[in-house]
Design goal:
alpha/beta, 5-stranded mixed β-sheet, about 25% helix, Nucleotidyltransferase, domain 5, globular
Length: about 90
């Protein structure tokens, strides 16, 4: 059985910042996107967590490149379902 998430976010993690893209179904069946950029500092990751929570995100996905994903993952794992993906 497939599981469909209506509110998801994808993260592009860099050394100095995290770009978040939020996606949800629109009122007429279309897709609505929002993007924002956050610092990779503790304060920035707290702001990212609040931004995701305000949008009632159900699933967060990010790519595991280098070591930059680790603080982001640890900051979000207690509150969200976080998928750590490997691009091949």
């Amino acid at each position: 059985m497939d599981q469909i998430y209506e509110r998801v976010a994808g993260l592009d993690v860099h050394r100095d910042n995290v770009v978040a893209c939020f996606r949800r179904l629109g009122p007429r069946g279309g897709v609505v996107f929002e993007k924002d950029r956050f610092a990779s500092t503790t304060a920035g990751l707290r702001a990212l967590e609040a931004w995701l929570a305000e949008r009632q995100v159900q699933l967060v996905a990010m790519e595991a490149t280098g070591v930059y994903w680790k603080p982001v993952y640890y900051a979000l794992e207690a509150r969200f379902t976080v998928w750590l993906c490997k691009a091949t």
